[in-house]
Amino acid sequence: MTETCSQQLAANARRCREQLTDEAAAEIAAFVMKQQNPDGGFRGRSTQSDLYYTQFALEALCALEQRLPVEGLRAFLVGFGRGDGLDFVHLACLLRCWGRMTEGAPAREVLDRVDEYRTPDGGYHGRRNARKGSPYGCYLALLAYEGAGVPLPGRESMARCLHACKPANTPTAAALSVLLAHLEGGGPAALGDWLLARASKRGGFAPSPLVPVPDLLSTATALHALTVLGRPLEALRRPCREFVTGLWAENGGFCGHWADRTPDCEYTYYALLALGCLA
Questions:
Q1: What is the signed CA dihedral for 189, 166, 8, 113, rounded to 10 degrees?
Q2: Among 57, 73, 253, 255, which is disulfide-ready with 260 (CB 3.0 to 4.6 Å)?
Q3: Whole-angstrom Cα distance, residue 106 to residue 109?
Q4: 8 Å CB contact between 51 and 90
Q5: Is the pLDDT at 1 greater than 60, yes or no?
Q6: In the prediction, which pLDDT does 2 show?
Q7: Which residues pair with 68 in a beta bridge?
Q8: Phi, psi of 240 (to 5 degrees)
Q9: Cα separations (Å) of 111 from 95, 116, 199?
Q10: Are 5 and 142 in contact (CB under 8 A)?
Q11: Predicted confidence (pLDDT) per residue in 202-234, tens digit
Q12: CA distances from 162 to 112, 132, 156, 173, 231 (A)
């Protein structure tokens, strides 16, 4: 595909502005900015800055077409150096955060650490020395390489790894769909059917056949994957929109599901991505 996975995500998320008034967009952006700590990073559900939530905060601000707090953020990222001591997820987040900056990323050194998680079958896994790759590991690795501006090596072997994977849940099926569409030009129709079967009559998408209660992560990832696959969403737009906006908290952020009472940057980004896909 001509667009990278990161570009596809950004384009879908930016379309959220078609669904939001200027006042609503400003309210959401203000919530995100309030999560920034004095060290330049963004916090999640604790008071500490975290690369994981920082990455989602940056993606949310970009979706809302806001200026990024570059200087404070740069100081925060520089503190991680080449990523020594970071796990796989946070290494990927570090490179994705640097990808939003104009310069300064120790890209090759961090990618060397990312590649420590490559598996013998050509994929990636979040655990070192795993024998087989996982869809989530492959997806994070690809986004990490895109954040570094470096072509992913071994694309064919990654695709073969992915064909051997089964969708354990909605985010997994979504990752498989997007990755195969990107690597091979089209995802299997069966994956799109599997995702559509997770659509809840009450709005949103459920995480699996065994867990029928919808959540925002499953909803956003499913809608994004179905958009990438070119599947029609007309019948889903109203119930999914109502589900997403029903998770909007008074302080401007979004919660993850109906029982959740704590909005954060991650779910706020997923709400913007879902709304963009529904535009």
A1: -160
A2: 255
A3: 6
A4: yes
A5: no
A6: 76
A7: none
A8: -70, -40
A9: 8, 9, 37
A10: yes
A11: 999 999 999 999 999 999 999 999 999 999 999
A12: 22, 10, 10, 11, 21
Residue 177, helix vs strand vs coil: helix
In order of 85, 199, 204, 234, 279, the CA distances from 237 in angstroms are 43, 11, 10, 6, 8
Tell me the one-letter amino acid at 203: G
Q: Which residue would you say has higher pLDDT here, 107 or 54? A: 54
CA atoms of 193 and 274, how far apart (whole Å): 19
Residue 103: per-residue pLDDT? 75
Question: Which among 238, 165, 162, 228 has a CA at the least distance from the CA of 199?
Answer: 238
Q: How far is CA 109 from CA 83, 106, 115, 150, in A?
A: 8, 6, 10, 12
What are the start-end ranges of the H helices in 233-264?
Answer: 237-245
Phi, psi (degrees; rounded to nearest 5) at 160: -65, -40
Q: Of 100, 96, 145, which is closest to residue 124 (Cα–Cα)?
A: 145
Can you say whether the dihedral through the CA atoms of 213, 208, 269, 276 is positive or negative?
negative
Cβ distance 131 to 119 under 8 Å? yes
Is residue 208 classed as helix, strand or coil in its secondary structure? strand
Q: What are phi and psi of 118, to 5 degrees?
A: -75, 140
Q: Tokens 């090596």 belong to which residue?
A: 153
Mind listing the pLDDT tens digit for each residue in 162-194? Answer: 999 999 999 999 999 999 999 998 778 899 999
